[in-house]
Protein backbone atom coordinates (compact mmCIF):
# COMPACT_ATOMS: atom_id res chain seq x y z
CA UNK A 1 0.00 0.00 0.00
CA UNK A 2 1.45 3.37 -0.99
CA UNK A 3 2.05 5.98 1.65
CA UNK A 4 -0.36 8.31 -0.18
CA UNK A 5 -3.19 6.01 0.67
CA UNK A 6 -2.46 6.64 4.35
CA UNK A 7 -4.48 9.86 4.13
CA UNK A 8 -7.43 7.88 2.71
CA UNK A 9 -7.16 5.21 5.41
CA UNK A 10 -6.91 8.00 7.96
CA UNK A 11 -10.27 9.36 6.89
CA UNK A 12 -12.04 6.12 7.70
CA UNK A 13 -10.68 5.76 11.24
CA UNK A 14 -9.72 9.27 12.35
CA UNK A 15 -12.33 12.04 12.18
CA UNK A 16 -11.16 14.31 9.36
CA UNK A 17 -8.00 12.20 9.12
CA UNK A 18 -5.94 14.26 11.60
CA UNK A 19 -5.46 14.42 15.36
CA UNK A 20 -5.97 18.13 15.96
CA UNK A 21 -8.52 20.53 14.50
CA UNK A 22 -5.80 22.91 13.36
CA UNK A 23 -4.04 20.18 11.37
CA UNK A 24 -6.94 19.96 8.94
CA UNK A 25 -5.65 22.51 6.47
CA UNK A 26 -7.54 23.09 3.22
CA UNK A 27 -5.38 22.07 0.29
CA UNK A 28 -3.25 19.75 2.43
CA UNK A 29 -5.71 16.89 2.86
CA UNK A 30 -3.23 14.43 1.36
CA UNK A 31 -0.28 15.49 3.46
CA UNK A 32 1.40 12.59 5.23
CA UNK A 33 4.58 13.39 7.12
CA UNK A 34 7.28 10.74 7.05
CA UNK A 35 10.32 12.44 8.60
CA UNK A 36 11.62 15.57 10.27
CA UNK A 37 15.23 16.70 10.53
CA UNK A 38 16.73 20.02 11.60
CA UNK A 39 15.00 22.78 9.64
CA UNK A 40 13.09 20.39 7.36
CA UNK A 41 10.38 17.79 7.06
CA UNK A 42 9.68 15.21 4.38
CA UNK A 43 6.31 13.99 3.11
CA UNK A 44 5.14 10.67 1.72
CA UNK A 45 5.84 11.82 -1.84
CA UNK A 46 9.49 12.19 -0.92
CA UNK A 47 9.39 15.99 -1.05
CA UNK A 48 11.44 17.82 1.56
CA UNK A 49 10.37 21.27 2.75
CA UNK A 50 12.13 23.91 4.80
CA UNK A 51 9.83 24.16 7.78
CA UNK A 52 8.79 27.49 9.25
CA UNK A 53 5.56 26.18 10.76
CA UNK A 54 7.53 24.31 13.43
CA UNK A 55 4.53 22.43 14.78
CA UNK A 56 3.03 25.74 16.02
CA UNK A 57 6.23 26.57 17.86
CA UNK A 58 7.96 23.91 19.97
CA UNK A 59 11.16 23.00 18.08
CA UNK A 60 13.15 26.17 18.73
CA UNK A 61 16.36 24.14 18.40
CA UNK A 62 15.16 22.50 15.19
CA UNK A 63 13.61 19.09 14.66
CA UNK A 64 15.26 16.05 16.29
CA UNK A 65 17.78 18.06 18.24
CA UNK A 66 20.50 15.51 19.05
CA UNK A 67 21.10 16.75 22.60
CA UNK A 68 17.44 16.76 23.58
CA UNK A 69 16.83 13.41 21.91
CA UNK A 70 19.85 11.88 23.65
CA UNK A 71 18.60 13.11 27.03
CA UNK A 72 15.20 11.54 26.36
CA UNK A 73 16.73 8.23 25.31
CA UNK A 74 19.02 8.22 28.32
CA UNK A 75 16.17 8.92 30.74
CA UNK A 76 13.88 6.39 29.06
CA UNK A 77 16.56 3.71 29.38
CA UNK A 78 16.64 3.86 33.14
CA UNK A 79 13.38 5.27 34.45
CA UNK A 80 9.81 5.55 33.29
CA UNK A 81 6.57 6.54 34.92
CA UNK A 82 5.97 5.63 38.57
CA UNK A 83 3.02 7.81 39.53
CA UNK A 84 4.13 8.24 43.11
CA UNK A 85 6.67 10.47 44.79
CA UNK A 86 8.99 12.78 42.90
CA UNK A 87 12.27 12.52 41.01
CA UNK A 88 15.41 14.59 41.40
CA UNK A 89 15.03 15.79 37.81
CA UNK A 90 11.54 17.19 38.50
CA UNK A 91 12.91 19.18 41.41
CA UNK A 92 15.80 20.46 39.34
CA UNK A 93 13.49 21.49 36.50
CA UNK A 94 11.22 23.32 38.97
CA UNK A 95 14.29 25.06 40.43
CA UNK A 96 15.38 26.05 36.92
CA UNK A 97 11.96 27.50 36.10
CA UNK A 98 11.78 29.40 39.38
CA UNK A 99 15.25 30.82 38.75
CA UNK A 100 14.50 31.83 35.17
CA UNK A 101 10.94 33.22 35.17
CA UNK A 102 10.42 36.33 37.32
CA UNK A 103 6.87 35.47 38.49
CA UNK A 104 7.59 31.84 39.34
CA UNK A 105 8.10 30.98 42.99
CA UNK A 106 6.57 27.52 42.75
CA UNK A 107 5.70 25.43 39.74
CA UNK A 108 3.68 22.36 38.71
CA UNK A 109 4.17 20.31 35.57
CA UNK A 110 1.47 19.29 33.09
CA UNK A 111 1.67 17.64 29.70
CA UNK A 112 0.08 20.41 27.63
CA UNK A 113 -0.42 24.14 27.59
CA UNK A 114 -4.20 23.72 27.73
CA UNK A 115 -3.94 21.92 31.04
CA UNK A 116 -1.71 24.67 32.39
CA UNK A 117 -4.13 27.46 31.43
CA UNK A 118 -7.09 25.40 32.69
CA UNK A 119 -5.46 25.10 36.10
CA UNK A 120 -4.49 28.77 36.09
CA UNK A 121 -8.13 29.77 35.69
CA UNK A 122 -9.39 27.22 38.18
CA UNK A 123 -6.97 28.31 40.90
CA UNK A 124 -7.82 31.95 40.19
CA UNK A 125 -11.51 31.31 40.67
CA UNK A 126 -10.81 29.28 43.78
CA UNK A 127 -8.52 31.89 45.32
CA UNK A 128 -10.80 34.85 44.63
CA UNK A 129 -14.18 33.15 44.99
CA UNK A 130 -15.17 35.00 41.81
CA UNK A 131 -16.76 33.92 38.57
CA UNK A 132 -15.56 36.02 35.63
CA UNK A 133 -12.41 35.75 33.58
CA UNK A 134 -11.19 38.25 31.01
CA UNK A 135 -9.59 37.21 27.74
CA UNK A 136 -8.76 39.17 24.62
CA UNK A 137 -9.98 38.91 21.06
CA UNK A 138 -7.30 37.06 19.06
CA UNK A 139 -5.70 35.22 21.97
CA UNK A 140 -5.78 31.43 22.16
CA UNK A 141 -5.24 29.65 25.45
CA UNK A 142 -6.14 26.05 24.61
CA UNK A 143 -9.24 24.01 24.01
CA UNK A 144 -11.10 24.18 27.34
CA UNK A 145 -14.46 25.83 27.76
CA UNK A 146 -13.64 29.08 29.58
CA UNK A 147 -11.30 30.25 26.81
CA UNK A 148 -12.69 28.52 23.70
CA UNK A 149 -13.88 31.67 22.01
CA UNK A 150 -12.89 34.74 20.00
CA UNK A 151 -9.64 33.65 18.46
CA UNK A 152 -9.67 34.27 14.69
CA UNK A 153 -13.18 35.62 14.42
CA UNK A 154 -14.99 36.58 11.24
CA UNK A 155 -15.54 40.37 11.09
CA UNK A 156 -19.25 40.11 11.91
CA UNK A 157 -18.45 38.11 15.06
CA UNK A 158 -16.01 40.54 16.60
CA UNK A 159 -17.49 42.30 19.61
CA UNK A 160 -19.69 39.40 20.66
CA UNK A 161 -19.15 35.88 21.94
CA UNK A 162 -17.65 33.77 19.16
CA UNK A 163 -17.22 30.18 20.41
CA UNK A 164 -14.74 27.91 18.66
CA UNK A 165 -16.74 24.88 19.73
CA UNK A 166 -20.25 23.79 20.37
CA UNK A 167 -21.03 21.88 23.55
CA UNK A 168 -19.95 24.63 25.92
CA UNK A 169 -22.44 25.49 28.65
CA UNK A 170 -23.86 28.95 27.99
CA UNK A 171 -23.14 29.94 31.59
CA UNK A 172 -19.46 29.16 31.01
CA UNK A 173 -19.37 31.29 27.86
CA UNK A 174 -21.15 34.04 29.76
CA UNK A 175 -18.51 33.96 32.50
CA UNK A 176 -15.76 35.06 30.08
CA UNK A 177 -15.50 38.71 29.12
CA UNK A 178 -13.78 39.23 25.77
CA UNK A 179 -12.00 42.55 25.40
CA UNK A 180 -9.96 44.13 22.60
CA UNK A 181 -6.19 43.62 22.99
CA UNK A 182 -4.13 46.79 23.51
CA UNK A 183 -7.22 48.74 24.59
CA UNK A 184 -6.43 49.99 28.09
CA UNK A 185 -9.66 51.99 28.19
CA UNK A 186 -11.73 48.85 27.61
CA UNK A 187 -9.84 47.10 30.42
CA UNK A 188 -10.44 49.98 32.83
CA UNK A 189 -14.13 50.10 31.91
CA UNK A 190 -14.50 46.33 32.41
CA UNK A 191 -12.93 46.60 35.85
CA UNK A 192 -15.04 49.63 36.74
CA UNK A 193 -18.16 47.68 35.88
CA UNK A 194 -17.29 44.09 36.92
CA UNK A 195 -14.14 44.39 39.04
CA UNK A 196 -15.60 42.74 42.10
CA UNK A 197 -16.56 39.67 40.01
CA UNK A 198 -13.35 39.27 37.99
CA UNK A 199 -11.25 36.30 39.11
CA UNK A 200 -8.53 36.58 36.47
CA UNK A 201 -7.23 38.26 33.36
CA UNK A 202 -5.48 35.84 31.02
CA UNK A 203 -3.41 37.21 28.16
CA UNK A 204 -0.80 36.21 25.62
CA UNK A 205 1.59 39.07 26.34
CA UNK A 206 2.42 39.06 22.64
CA UNK A 207 -0.54 37.97 20.55
CA UNK A 208 0.99 35.17 18.51
CA UNK A 209 -2.14 33.23 17.68
CA UNK A 210 -2.92 35.92 15.14
CA UNK A 211 0.66 36.21 13.88
CA UNK A 212 2.42 38.86 15.93
CA UNK A 213 0.66 41.74 17.63
CA UNK A 214 2.98 43.34 20.17
CA UNK A 215 1.59 44.96 23.29
CA UNK A 216 1.63 48.76 23.06
CA UNK A 217 3.57 50.64 25.73
CA UNK A 218 1.79 50.52 29.03
CA UNK A 219 -0.92 47.99 28.12
CA UNK A 220 0.46 45.09 30.18
CA UNK A 221 1.12 47.49 33.07
CA UNK A 222 -2.55 48.53 32.98
CA UNK A 223 -3.50 44.86 33.29
CA UNK A 224 -1.15 44.61 36.26
CA UNK A 225 -2.55 47.75 37.92
CA UNK A 226 -6.21 46.90 37.38
CA UNK A 227 -5.91 43.31 38.56
CA UNK A 228 -3.92 44.35 41.61
CA UNK A 229 -6.41 47.05 42.53
CA UNK A 230 -9.39 44.70 42.09
CA UNK A 231 -7.77 41.72 43.80
CA UNK A 232 -7.90 39.64 40.60
CA UNK A 233 -5.19 37.29 39.32
CA UNK A 234 -3.07 38.28 36.32
CA UNK A 235 -2.06 35.31 34.16
CA UNK A 236 0.54 35.61 31.42
CA UNK A 237 0.06 32.75 29.01
CA UNK A 238 3.65 32.39 27.80
CA UNK A 239 3.10 29.04 26.09
CA UNK A 240 4.50 30.60 22.90
CA UNK A 241 6.63 33.49 24.19
CA UNK A 242 8.23 31.52 27.03
CA UNK A 243 11.83 30.46 26.20
CA UNK A 244 11.36 31.42 22.54
CA UNK A 245 11.74 35.15 23.12
CA UNK A 246 13.81 34.94 26.30
CA UNK A 247 14.59 32.33 28.92
CA UNK A 248 12.56 34.40 31.40
CA UNK A 249 9.67 34.83 28.99
CA UNK A 250 8.11 38.08 27.81
CA UNK A 251 7.76 39.19 31.44
CA UNK A 252 11.55 39.40 31.65
CA UNK A 253 11.50 41.68 28.60
CA UNK A 254 8.57 43.93 29.49
CA UNK A 255 9.21 44.17 33.22
CA UNK A 256 5.61 43.41 34.21
CA UNK A 257 5.31 40.47 36.58
CA UNK A 258 2.07 38.48 36.53
CA UNK A 259 0.73 36.38 39.41
CA UNK A 260 0.71 33.18 37.37
CA UNK A 261 2.53 32.09 34.22
CA UNK A 262 1.88 29.21 31.88
CA UNK A 263 4.61 27.83 29.63
CA UNK A 264 4.88 24.93 27.18
CA UNK A 265 5.98 24.48 23.56
CA UNK A 266 9.64 25.60 23.37
CA UNK A 267 10.33 24.33 26.89
CA UNK A 268 11.24 20.87 25.55
CA UNK A 269 11.73 21.31 21.81
CA UNK A 270 8.62 19.30 20.90
CA UNK A 271 8.22 16.81 23.70
CA UNK A 272 4.88 17.10 25.53
CA UNK A 273 5.50 18.96 28.75
CA UNK A 274 4.17 22.27 30.04
CA UNK A 275 3.99 24.08 33.37
CA UNK A 276 2.06 26.50 35.51
CA UNK A 277 3.99 28.57 38.00
CA UNK A 278 3.66 31.72 40.03
CA UNK A 279 3.10 33.17 43.45
CA UNK A 280 3.73 30.61 46.18
CA UNK A 281 0.51 31.48 48.04
CA UNK A 282 -1.58 30.71 44.94
CA UNK A 283 0.41 27.65 43.91
CA UNK A 284 0.25 26.26 47.43
CA UNK A 285 -3.54 26.00 47.17
CA UNK A 286 -3.23 23.14 44.66
CA UNK A 287 -4.08 19.70 46.03
CA UNK A 288 -0.53 18.45 45.50
CA UNK A 289 -0.10 20.17 48.88
CA UNK A 290 -1.85 18.05 51.51
CA UNK A 291 -5.38 19.14 52.35
CA UNK A 292 -5.37 22.02 49.88
CA UNK A 293 -8.55 22.56 47.91
CA UNK A 294 -7.71 23.07 44.20
CA UNK A 295 -7.60 19.67 42.56
CA UNK A 296 -4.52 19.06 40.47
CA UNK A 297 -3.62 15.76 38.82
CA UNK A 298 -2.35 14.13 35.67
CA UNK A 299 -1.08 10.62 35.08
CA UNK A 300 1.76 11.82 32.89
CA UNK A 301 2.73 14.97 34.82
CA UNK A 302 6.49 15.13 35.29
CA UNK A 303 7.14 12.15 33.02
CA UNK A 304 10.89 11.48 33.39
CA UNK A 305 11.65 11.46 29.67
CA UNK A 306 9.76 14.73 29.15
CA UNK A 307 11.47 16.32 32.14
CA UNK A 308 14.79 15.21 30.70
CA UNK A 309 13.83 16.81 27.38
CA UNK A 310 12.99 20.10 29.09
CA UNK A 311 16.19 20.12 31.11
CA UNK A 312 18.34 19.37 28.07
CA UNK A 313 16.52 21.99 26.02
CA UNK A 314 16.89 24.70 28.69
CA UNK A 315 20.55 23.77 29.13
CA UNK A 316 21.17 24.27 25.43
CA UNK A 317 19.20 27.53 25.35
CA UNK A 318 21.38 28.76 28.21
CA UNK A 319 24.75 27.50 26.99
CA UNK A 320 24.63 28.09 23.25
CA UNK A 321 23.93 31.28 21.30
CA UNK A 322 20.49 30.04 20.28
CA UNK A 323 18.64 33.31 20.80
CA UNK A 324 21.38 35.31 19.10
CA UNK A 325 21.18 33.01 16.09
CA UNK A 326 17.41 32.88 15.68
CA UNK A 327 16.98 36.59 16.39
CA UNK A 328 19.55 37.47 13.69
CA UNK A 329 17.88 35.20 11.13
CA UNK A 330 14.44 36.51 12.11
CA UNK A 331 15.61 40.08 11.54
CA UNK A 332 17.11 39.17 8.14
CA UNK A 333 13.87 37.49 7.13
CA UNK A 334 11.70 40.41 8.19
CA UNK A 335 13.79 43.03 6.43
CA UNK A 336 14.23 40.75 3.39
CA UNK A 337 10.49 40.20 3.12
CA UNK A 338 9.81 43.91 3.34
CA UNK A 339 12.10 44.39 0.35
CA UNK A 340 10.52 41.53 -1.60
CA UNK A 341 7.01 42.87 -1.08
CA UNK A 342 7.97 46.44 -1.85
CA UNK A 343 9.80 45.41 -5.07
CA UNK A 344 6.65 43.57 -6.13
CA UNK A 345 4.50 46.57 -5.24
CA UNK A 346 2.37 44.48 -2.90
CA UNK A 347 1.23 46.23 0.28
CA UNK A 348 2.50 44.27 3.24
CA UNK A 349 2.94 44.66 6.93
CA UNK A 350 5.81 42.42 7.98
CA UNK A 351 5.55 41.81 11.70
CA UNK A 352 7.34 39.65 14.23
CA UNK A 353 9.72 39.49 17.12
CA UNK A 354 12.93 37.53 17.49
CA UNK A 355 12.47 34.19 15.76
CA UNK A 356 8.85 34.86 14.75
CA UNK A 357 7.74 36.48 11.51
CA UNK A 358 4.59 36.96 9.50
CA UNK A 359 3.83 38.95 6.36
CA UNK A 360 0.29 40.30 6.47
CA UNK A 361 -1.18 41.30 3.14
CA UNK A 362 -2.24 44.80 4.13
CA UNK A 363 -0.73 48.23 4.14
CA UNK A 364 0.04 50.43 7.07
CA UNK A 365 2.12 49.99 10.20
CA UNK A 366 2.34 46.87 12.33
CA UNK A 367 -1.14 45.91 13.57
CA UNK A 368 -2.08 46.74 17.15
CA UNK A 369 -5.60 45.35 17.30
CA UNK A 370 -7.65 42.51 15.88
CA UNK A 371 -9.61 45.09 13.90
CA UNK A 372 -6.37 46.07 12.15
CA UNK A 373 -5.90 42.43 11.16
CA UNK A 374 -9.27 42.33 9.43
CA UNK A 375 -7.59 44.32 6.64
CA UNK A 376 -5.34 41.35 5.86
CA UNK A 377 -6.17 39.95 2.40
CA UNK A 378 -6.73 36.31 3.41
CA UNK A 379 -7.05 35.10 -0.20
CA UNK A 380 -3.58 36.45 -1.01
CA UNK A 381 -2.09 35.41 2.35
CA UNK A 382 -3.19 31.83 1.68
CA UNK A 383 -2.36 31.96 -2.04
CA UNK A 384 1.18 33.09 -1.29
CA UNK A 385 1.73 30.36 1.28
CA UNK A 386 0.36 27.67 -0.99
CA UNK A 387 2.67 28.94 -3.75
CA UNK A 388 5.61 28.79 -1.32
CA UNK A 389 4.96 25.07 -0.99
CA UNK A 390 5.67 24.63 -4.69
CA UNK A 391 9.11 26.04 -3.88
CA UNK A 392 9.49 23.62 -0.98
CA UNK A 393 9.01 26.21 1.72
CA UNK A 394 6.40 25.52 4.38
CA UNK A 395 4.59 28.32 6.16
CA UNK A 396 1.24 27.04 7.39
CA UNK A 397 -1.45 28.05 4.88
CA UNK A 398 -3.99 29.15 7.49
CA UNK A 399 -4.94 32.80 7.83
CA UNK A 400 -2.82 34.96 10.17
CA UNK A 401 -0.60 32.10 11.35
CA UNK A 402 2.93 33.03 12.38
CA UNK A 403 6.15 31.41 11.18
CA UNK A 404 9.26 30.51 13.17
CA UNK A 405 12.98 30.10 12.63
CA UNK A 406 14.97 27.61 14.64
CA UNK A 407 18.60 27.12 15.64
CA UNK A 408 18.84 24.61 12.78
CA UNK A 409 17.98 27.23 10.14
CA UNK A 410 20.92 28.93 8.45
CA UNK A 411 21.61 32.05 6.41
CA UNK A 412 21.33 29.83 3.32
CA UNK A 413 17.77 28.92 4.35
CA UNK A 414 16.98 32.62 4.62
CA UNK A 415 18.29 33.26 1.10
CA UNK A 416 16.26 30.34 -0.18
CA UNK A 417 13.15 31.67 1.60
CA UNK A 418 13.50 35.14 0.14
CA UNK A 419 14.07 33.81 -3.36
CA UNK A 420 11.06 31.52 -3.08
CA UNK A 421 9.02 34.42 -1.68
CA UNK A 422 9.71 36.51 -4.80
CA UNK A 423 8.47 33.71 -7.04
CA UNK A 424 5.52 32.78 -4.79
CA UNK A 425 4.39 36.37 -4.62
CA UNK A 426 4.39 36.63 -8.43
CA UNK A 427 2.40 33.40 -8.65
CA UNK A 428 -0.10 34.53 -6.03
CA UNK A 429 -0.60 37.85 -7.85
CA UNK A 430 -1.15 36.02 -11.14
CA UNK A 431 -3.69 33.66 -9.65
CA UNK A 432 -5.36 36.34 -7.53
CA UNK A 433 -4.83 34.22 -4.42
CA UNK A 434 -6.97 31.37 -3.14
CA UNK A 435 -10.55 31.49 -4.40
CA UNK A 436 -12.13 29.49 -1.62
CA UNK A 437 -10.92 30.69 1.75
CA UNK A 438 -13.64 28.96 3.77
CA UNK A 439 -12.19 26.86 6.61
CA UNK A 440 -8.78 28.49 6.28
CA UNK A 441 -9.48 32.08 7.22
CA UNK A 442 -11.32 31.96 10.54
CA UNK A 443 -11.50 29.85 13.65
CA UNK A 444 -14.80 30.24 15.42
CA UNK A 445 -18.41 30.66 14.43
CA UNK A 446 -19.63 27.63 16.37
CA UNK A 447 -23.31 28.22 17.06
CA UNK A 448 -24.28 28.32 20.69
C1 LIG B 1 -0.72 30.84 23.87
C2 LIG B 1 -1.17 29.43 23.96
N1 LIG B 1 -1.65 28.96 25.11
C3 LIG B 1 -2.05 27.69 25.26
C4 LIG B 1 -1.99 26.82 24.21
C5 LIG B 1 -2.44 25.41 24.38
O1 LIG B 1 -1.34 24.58 24.42
P1 LIG B 1 -1.48 23.02 24.02
O2 LIG B 1 -1.79 22.97 22.57
O3 LIG B 1 -0.15 22.45 24.38
O4 LIG B 1 -2.59 22.46 24.85
C6 LIG B 1 -1.50 27.26 22.98
C7 LIG B 1 -1.41 26.34 21.83
O5 LIG B 1 -1.20 26.71 20.71
C8 LIG B 1 -1.09 28.59 22.84
O6 LIG B 1 -0.65 29.08 21.68
UniProtKB/TrEMBL annotation:
Coiled-coil stretches noted in the UniProt entry, renumbered to this chain: none
Keywords associated with the record: Pyridoxal phosphate
PROSITE patterns: AA_TRANSFER_CLASS_3
Pfam families to which the protein is assigned, alphabetical: Aminotran_3
MF term (GO), any: pyridoxal phosphate binding
Cofactor(s) listed in the protein's UniProt record: pyridoxal 5'-phosphate
Source organism superkingdom: Bacteria
Family recorded in the similarity comment: Belongs to the class-III pyridoxal-phosphate-dependent aminotransferase family.
Protein name: Glutamate-1-semialdehyde 2,1-aminomutase
Organism: Dactylosporangium sucinum
Amino acid sequence: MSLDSISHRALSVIPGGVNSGQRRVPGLEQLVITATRGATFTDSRGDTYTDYHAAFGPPLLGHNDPDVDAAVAEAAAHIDLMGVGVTQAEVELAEDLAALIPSVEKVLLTSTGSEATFHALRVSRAATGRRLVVKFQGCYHGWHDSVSMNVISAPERVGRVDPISTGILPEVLDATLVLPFNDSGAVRRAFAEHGADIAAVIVEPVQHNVGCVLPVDGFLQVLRDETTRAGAVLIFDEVITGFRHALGGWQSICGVTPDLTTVGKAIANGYPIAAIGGRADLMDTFSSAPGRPVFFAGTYNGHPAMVAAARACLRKLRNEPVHEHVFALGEQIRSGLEEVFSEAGVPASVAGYGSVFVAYFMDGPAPQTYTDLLRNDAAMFLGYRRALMRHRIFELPLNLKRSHVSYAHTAAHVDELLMASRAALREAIESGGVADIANASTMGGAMR
